[in-house]
Model the fold of this input.
Amino acid sequence: MKTDILYILLCFFTVAFTTVSCDDFLDITPDGQVQRDELLSTAEGIEDAMYGVYSQMRLPELYGMELHYSSLEVMSQTLSCYGAKYEEALGRYDYSDTRVKSQFESIWVSMYKNISNVNSVLNSPLVEGATEFPYSIYRGEALGLRAFMHFDLVRLFAEQYTVNSSADGIPYATEFSLNTPEFESLEKNYEHIIADLLLADSLLRDEEKYENSSDFMSDRKIHFNIYAVWAALARVYLTMGNKEMAFKYADKVISGGKYTLKDKTEVENDVAGVLSKKECLFGIYDQGFYTNVYQKIYLTTSFYSLFLRDDYMELYDRDAVGSDERVAAYFTVVGSGDMATVRLGKIVERYELQNNSSNRPSELILGVNLIRLPEMYYIAAEALLDTDHAAALGYYNAVREHRGLEPLVMEDENDKLTIEQINDERYKEYIGEGQTFFNMKRQNLPILSYDGKTTYQPGAGIYVVPIPDVELENRY
Done:
């Protein structure tokens, strides 16, 4: 696992070919091209470049904040900030607000810059077409990352596939360039995403054979590994409405045996600013994650910190036979008396919070969980809901029991597990992790505002963020 020192040393790599000029939205300099070619001429250089890609994913405008616990949680109406102009506008889905437009422009630009970084690796002579270790591993990881990042852009900036598969999509960038390619259809976007993930699957299939053979092949959960590829395929196929294929890949993750659901006694602090020891399939190492989370989620700073919706506990009380260990693990009371406030302490790193970081166990990896195992159980349950109810209920109950709840029992033969119950469990498990909005969009659900006063009906006005002006202005 690389340290932040490596990130500093690699800045020349990222800056060299991600600088935006005044004349062009994206630009590449001859000097940057030379530095890039030199860097990517050795295996060590390619590994450094890949670490640079991962480090860019932890930017605040990407998975270090906005695409994790901030903007996406405001859009799901889970969190809000009274008096903060950006959050209030976003909570109304006012995508014309200048603050909102600026934030999503940053997300768009930063993501495409990093996709270009990935393509730089993929287009390099040692990686392009590689089928032998170690270059096949670099290629597989890079292809997986390219699909993963494009998929999240699609989920933000395009319509839901099952609502309108013939809709316009986004550019799918496959070349090292700071100019994004032409826009394409949503169907074509998904074809590219699936193709990249399937090729990554074939390239990474033997990765466990080489695990721990080098620094790069260690700590595989901070790399886009084979399990992350399968999980991403399950996620993508479910979003496309292909439940058969979604189950196939969710089951590959579950039955693969490398990752297991944590026991109910292990829930506390398992995702608190660290990668889950048993359940993290893919996450980003981020030594500085605590600072922003602490200020945004734990503190109660006026016009800045995010607060939970008032009725958040209703879901945890529903069907709650047993003791749901997530309640104590995810929510923290700050202050006392009339000043007491419940905070979403779920992702706040506890050793740092207690000024005791020197005693943090060395095996814990600081950072952001981006794909966790429980999602695969929910996908499996949903995929089998109409075809194999008993199996669907089994997957659903597996997570419940590992969180301290009693299994849901159908006392009447006519009783059936419902998609609403699966959604409830998803929400409880993934609160604060940026997945709820996408789950709502996938099912085209209405969204109840955080204060319970307004129900936002599904539609493009809510579920599709407009393409940033800067992209369109620099094309035409």
In short: Confidence is low (pLDDT under 50) at residues 1-30. Residues 4-473 form a domain with the Serine Threonine Protein Phosphatase 5, Tetratricopeptide repeat fold (CATH 1.25.40.390).
